# Entry
Amino acid sequence: MSYFQKRENVNLYTDMMLDIDNSFVINEVEKVLPPNSTLLELGMGTGLDLLSLSKKYRVLGSDYSQLFIDDFKLKSDLDVCVLDAVSIDIDRKFDCIYSNKVLQHLATEDLIVSLSNQFRHLNENGITFLTLWNDNYREEFEFDGQLRFVYYDRATIEKLIPQELTIEKFILYSEFESNDSMIVILRAKLA
Ligand SMILES: C[S@@+](CC[C@H](N)C(=O)[O-])C[C@H]1O[C@@H](n2cnc3c(N)ncnc32)[C@H](O)[C@@H]1O
# Structure
């Protein structure tokens, strides 16, 4: 069983999110994505961002942890489902696929697969909007070795982006420390 599939870890994360201000990232979405666009969120966790994004977009939330999905359904009627961010096994396309601090938990080879699968689920000219931790590229395991964190720098990200996607914007921002985070916005190339 993986880290976010354990009740105590989901509760810990939910408590940690109580005071989080997500407005910087949401604002960056709104700069690039027209209102009323369709949006799939991968790894929604507590659904804080999904609730904000639902004010302007037609959203579907998802997470691979049934626990986060069950908790969210107790507080909202928005559409949500269990979905793995690597395989993205869903028969729908979206204008935007959004993930906030999710894909750093994947091994790098799975991040590459995820980005290809995200592309397959984008409408023409759609975007992938993701955030990651910004630091020298390396992989670490935290929380007693139960949870993988991969830190990326811009040069590494540029090398692993599938050729069907192009970098539209790359923004550094600060969550806990100066420039500890990055937003990467990728756009599907026109056929
Ligand atoms: C650090 S939390 C971020 C949650 C939320 N995006 C936020 O900003 O608060 C990572 C989330 O990614 C989810 N996650 C991790 N690996 C995943 C995967 N392979 N597929 C889907 N979700 C995954 C976890 O269950 C958790 O909800």
The chain has one domain: 3-188. The CA atoms of residues 59 and 96 lie 9 Å apart.
